Amino acid sequence: MSGSLTVIGGHSSTQGLTGLVTVPAGFTGSNALITSLQSLLTAASGSVSAGSANFENLNAAGQTGAKSATVGGFSTGILEITNTSSVGATTAGAANISLTAPTGYNTLVVQAPGTETITGNGATSMLAVFGANSSVNFNPEGGSGTIFAGGAGDVINTSGGNWSIVGGATGAETLNASGTSAAVTTTGAGDQVQTTAQNTSIASGGSSDILIVSGSTSNADITVTGNATIQSAGSSDTVVASGSGAIIGYFIGSAGGTMDFINSSSNASSIIAGLNPASGAISSQGSVTVSAGAGGGVYDGGISGDNSLVGGSGVVTLFSAGINNYLYANGAPTGSAYNLLNAFSGGNDTLVAGTGSTNNVFFGGIGTESIVSGGKGVQDYFVGTLGSETISASTVSGASNVFIFNQSALQGGGTDVLLHFKPGEGFINPSNGVTGVSIVSYENLNGANTGTEIDLSNGTTVKLFGVSASSFNASIIGGTKF
Fold it and tell me: Is the pTM of the predicted complex or chain greater than 0.70?
């Protein structure tokens, strides 16, 4: 929810509190947030009333240009930029000013229409509150503390120690963090968060947020309950989409890093890697771990390999990169939709379709691949252009297995093993100038009762267990018989 806060607006040593500044908070959340924040402001106001803290209320309504504040004699205090007088009267006009906070102020309150540019004093345990009617560009100049940015279009740039930043419901805020650590919460629409802090937590609850995390020493924990675009470059990030959250994640650059993504939402998300413009292969460094859940989505791995892309009950499109990858689909798409498991940019991969899956398409890569299907419906296997593959076709009743060899005369050279091939299923004959050199039936092929071995003109050998040469020829779709 949003609410209003009050803070001391005027003070004299004999009269105490003579005015209150009302600050429209502009935050979406629980009553506890507003209550906690009001307690902090009340405590700071009490110190001023007791004569033990500095205080200045700069009524900047209708003013422009650079302003200054009085240096106080205490180590703490409240500095206010408002449109409210010391007796609580509101003054008309915008405050388009700039100001540098002198030492001795660790609580900053801005509540005035206009655009205010504030430079901090590097205070530790700073409390900054920017009201919903203001628009503040704030650089604390190091230090640490908490910033509540409730205005539209606030720009926050933190560095130094540990900072907590809470964005307001109005949105369109730019929140930049560096230094030791940052905890950032967004609640509005169109916020942008950019961090190179060593440790960052981001709770993105708004819509159309842009979250940028970079730096080889950066670690980020990101939770998205709205929808957000995430750019990760070189950092080590854990990303969770929960509730109705959805993300588009870009795993970019050549700096490496890792991304662990958990889709606890019912909506689809995606992790997209950069592509080589010439080959179309994935070019982004790093590794990706995905648990796609019921939402499913589209997910790429990084070329550092060891990617684990695991689908749940949702429909998935999975692309490996590098070597030693694991791709798993278990969704049951309907109509013409299908799960796609693609090792085109990978090698030495394991591609698996679970027993809950329906309609799966597999693309082999360039290494030693293992493809296993326990799915129902149509199962299409595009055999890799290089390397060797073992394909264990689905044995589910009613499943239709089709094997497609789309190699050229310059590709191939490996040994491909087809398990559970049944006469009458589809074998797409090689094209692009590749022909069969020989086909031989064996009474005992690697322990099977019968088997067929086919040698292709590009050096590829295909072995089928439990299938005779004559029954295999009857299964060829297109091209010539062997």
Answer: yes
